[in-house]
Design brief:
The chain is built from eleven helices and 14 strands. With about 375 residues, the protein is α/β, with parallel strands linked by helices. It has one domain: TIM Barrel (Alpha-Beta Barrel), CATH 3.20.20. A twelve-stranded mixed sheet has the order 9-10-11-8-7-6-5-4-3-12-13-14. Helix 1 packs parallel to helix 2 and helix 2 packs parallel to helix 3. Catalyzes the cyclization of GTP to (8S)-3',8-cyclo-7,8-dihydroguanosine 5'-triphosphate. One of its GO terms (molecular function) is 4 iron, 4 sulfur cluster binding.
């Protein structure tokens, strides 16, 4: 009798990351003792993905045709535990990391996420200061979680919101989720003291770019900082085309047709957003322009995946396995040595090279796997 046939599941092909860790001999160290990569960039910012699942299906991140009902997510035992995440955070902090951002997937789907926040809030930098501990969310669960997150020690949140018009927003999240619930989450976060709140809008031409001015008008004068993000070619599944990108300069011109805006200085080294203030004191907006204005030169960010792989660029195709070190009983000194070797060999500058002739394309890691 013939064996029954089954329909193959679509799975994103990620490169096996169980690679030999690079040697750590003689990593460059800055005047302040922080690690430096091959372009003299320090390791200041760590993005930690705590879950690979999300309840939205935004086309630029987790399109439904790929991440459908049969998609196989990581089993729970593959995810880093809260204790493992906290241990790594302590080791990164000892080497100069000052900022930790929790991401996903949707991080608020991780059970008892408040406990992880509580643990991370106890971590101190090399000079004894608390970490700048933040979280990026789609806002769907924020109304019910905001106060507990603040009480656990979270400092700020960034909320992804791609449209103010409900019909447009429901189309973009592709699960028919109402925009009003996200706005309620933002209000709850403000009431809980999670601020200043940032709202990120990924802009796609012909899809939601008509919403840019409406969002700016909505958040102007509220203390919420709206940031416009150029649609990026992250991963291999979002169907990126240059024609879909709305350059930040075009969006800035649209806003300046309504309000006078003046440029602001960067608030910290390695800041991704170009900042502009309303001349009348109505707050500020930001533009994250990875496509039209690469900021690789002072990028000081690394990303830790849900299962403990360290990526050195949002557009990377391979990561470095730290989970095996944790679970094989490696000492803190051995893990620190590994991190120093990984960062010391870093030379990533994908956005600067975009558009140039390149070797055969390799599958890039998906945004939902390492966070934005």
């Amino acid at each position: 009798m013939r064996a029954p046939t089954t329909t193959p599941r679509r799975v994103i092909p990620l490169v096996d990351q169980r690679l030999a860790l690079p040697p750590a001999a003689g990593p460059a160290v800055g005047a302040g003792g922080e690690l430096l990569d091959t372009r003299q960039r320090p390791l200041r910012d760590l993005r930690i993905s705590v879950i690979d699942r999300c309840n939205f299906r935004c086309s630029y991140c987790m399109p439904k045709e790929v991440f459908g009902k049969d998609y196989r997510y990581l089993p729970h035992e593959a995810l880093l535990s809260f204790e493992e995440i906290t241990r790594l955070a302590q080791l990164f902090a000892a080497q100069g990391t000052r900022n930790i951002r929790l991401t996903g997937g949707e991080p608020l789907l991780r059970k008892n996420i408040e406990e992880l926040v509580r643990q991370l809030a106890q971590v101190r930098t090399a000079d004894g200061q608390p970490l700048d501990l933040t979280l990026t969310t789609n806002g769907s669960l924020l109304a019910r979680k905001a106060r507990a997150l603040r009480e656990a020690g979270l400092a700020r949140v960034t909320v992804s919101l791609d449209a103010l018009d409900d019909a447009t927003f429901r189309r973009m999240n592709d699960v028919d989720f109402p925009v009003a619930d996200v706005l309620d989450g933002i209000a709850a976060a403000q009431a809980a003291g999670l601020g200043p709140i940032k709202v990120n809008m990924v802009v796609k031409r012909g899809v939601n770019d008509h919403e840019a001015v409406a969002l700016a008008r909505h958040f102007r004068g509220t203390g919420v900082v709206l940031r416009f993000i150029e649609f990026m070619d992250v991963g291999s599944t979002n169907g990126w085309r240059m024609d879909d990108v709305v350059p930040s300069q075009e969006l800035l011109a649209r806003l300046r047709a309504h309000w006078e805006l003046v440029p602001l200085q960067a608030s910290a080294p390695g800041e991704t957003a170009q900042r502009w203030a309303y001349a009348d004191g109505g707050g500020e907006v930001g533009f994250i322009s990875s496509v039209s204005h690469a900021f690789c030169g002072d990028c000081n960010r690394a990303r830790l995946s849900t299962e403990g792989r360290l990526y050195l660029c949002l557009f990377a195709s391979q990561g470095h396995d730290l989970r095996s070190l944790l679970r094989d009983g490696a000492s803190d000194a051995r893990i620190v040595q590994a991190i120093a070797g990984i960062w010391g060999n870093r030379a990533d500058r994908y956005s600067e090279l975009r558009g140039q002739a390149a070797p055969a394309a390799r599958p890039r890691v998906e945004m939902s796997y390492i966070g934005g």
